[in-house]
Specification:
It is built from 15 helices and 13 strands. With 448 residues, the protein is an alpha/beta fold. The chain is globular, with a radius of gyration of 22 Å.
Length: 448
């Protein structure tokens, strides 16, 4: 049974990735190796997960592709932008996430993926120093924000035509930018954002916003894989709805926050108390280097801190979650990221959780997650791209809340005091219900 309202996944799907670093090249290499039957896309929900449809005697468990028309891996074409000119093969080798034996079989295909010059402003990522960047057509130098967006739109059109793609998705897998606070004068209305771009307002308009603007203007879904506020502003919501294009963000939920969104419900469901949760990470790749800059870490910190507060709520259970910080209004929650080059892409996350139980007696939980950042992020990239493309063909547009399962700081309408859903199992229910709906089945699970 299929939903006639969802357009088929015909033709090639162009996935244009911002950034050609560890995450992007691990994603690309894995897809290309899987296509050749030389690797398994482990961790990808769209490739492995099965969802129940129907009840009683009608009950069946099916892969996503048996419920909805997903694009096939064979139909994907990759493109990218990066401040460094190395092709995807060179970048994958440099990143040292994958072994040579897992890269060399697709060397030719990776070498053909050459980064287009990036729309880049060094003030937003001071630790990066590449020279493969766009220059103003008006005599060189840094382009204005409007020029950036126009050049990126041209890149998307050219790539689509050159590779014969019927559809494009744009994915941000680049570094975390410095924190851009939401400013109502610039970010609330599309006309104000466009005026700021034309006026080259570099303080309020991040380069990532130019990518998002270009993608949406060209009718391509945009996915924000970093904690940047890029599409998490009303002006972008307005553009996405006007263009009838899906958006999703923000920040891939890979290691520590995945643990947090899955483990916090154990504490809450069991009605145990929480005094404090301390999280720290060591990371040595380019992402860690960029996050070593305090202004860039601030963006990540806001994203990582938001997870617990919507799962364990002091206002609902004051006895359990209303004590621990200086004001004695909530548990103490601290997040740290430390740049540590010897670890490269092998991130280590430590969580120290101070809980209490019967009669207030204290207990502790320690979690030490030795994970591989790009190995966890790559399947999320695939799922987010395939599901955003599906949403587009299903006529869904604006913020795709059902994709919050894959994201660390899910987008929500904070202007209406909407609260994001961070509880992993509630997010999973939202994901399953959306797949059911798009497949023409009943969205039959409640989100308690």
């Amino acid at each position: 049974m299929t939903n006639n309202n969802v357009l088929p996944a015909e033709g090639k799907l162009g996935i244009m990735v911002v950034g050609c670093g560890a995450v992007a090249t691990t994603f690309m290499t894995g897809v290309l190796m899987t296509r050749k039957g030389l690797a398994k896309p482990v961790g990808s929900m769209t490739q492995y997960d099965k969802i129940r449809i129907g009840r009683g005697e009608q009950k069946k468990y099916l892969h996503y592709a048996d419920i909805v028309p997903l694009a096939k891996l064979d139909d994907i074409v990759f493109g990218c932008w990066d401040v460094y000119p190395q092709n995807a093969f060179q970048s994958a080798m440099y990143a040292e996430v994958l072994k040579e034996k897992d890269i060399l079989p697709v060397r030719d295909e990776l070498e053909a993926i050459k980064p287009m010059p990036a729309a880049f402003d060094k003030n937003y990522a001071k630790r990066l120093d590449g020279d493969n960047v766009k220059v103003s057509p008006q005599g060189g130098g840094l382009p204005t924000r409007w020029e950036m967006a126009e050049m990126l739109r041209e890149d998307i059109r050219s790539f689509k035509e050159q590779h014969g793609c019927s559809r494009i998705v744009v994915l941000w897998a680049a570094s975390t930018e410095i924190y851009v606070p939401v400013d109502e004068r610039v970010h609330y209305r599309l006309e104000d954002l466009e005026a700021a771009m034309r006026a080259d307002d570099r303080e309020h308009v991040a380069p990532s916003m130019c990518y998002a603007y270009a993608a949406l203007a060209e009718g391509a879904p945009f996915i924000m894989g970093a904690p940047n506020t890029t599409v998490d502003i009303p002006a972008m919501w307005q553009l996405a709805e006007q263009q009838r294009v899906p958006i999703a963000g923000k920040d891939f939920k890979t290691g520590q926050t995945l643990v947090k969104s899955g483990f916090a419900p154990i504490i809450g469901t069991r009605c145990l108390g929480l005094n404090g949760w301390f999280s720290t990470n060591i990371l040595g790749n380019r992402d860690g280097l960029v996050l070593d800059e305090p202004a860039n870490f601030r963006t990540k910190e806001v994203s990582k801190l938001s997870t617990l507060e919507t799962i364990l709520k002091p206002n609902i259970q004051p006895d359990l979650y209303g004590h621990g910080n200086a004001e004695d209004t909530q548990y103490y929650h601290k997040v740290r990221i430390n740049y540590y080059p010897p670890r490269n892409d092998n991130k280590e996350g430590w969580d120290n959780i101070d809980i209490f139980g019967w009669m207030g007696y204290p207990m502790q939980i320690k979690i030490n997650f030795l994970c591989r950042d790009s190995i966890l992020a790559a399947p999320l990239c695939l799922d987010l791209c395939l599901l955003s493309d599906l949403a587009m063909r299903a006529g869904r547009y604006g913020t795709q809340r059902f994709l919050s399962f894959f994201l660390k700081s899910p987008m929500h309408d904070y202007t209406q005091d909407e609260e994001p859903v961070n509880h992993l199992y509630q997010q999973y229910t939202m994901l399953k219900n959306a797949i059911r709906e798009m497949g023409g089945y009943e969205a039959d699970e409640e989100i308690d």
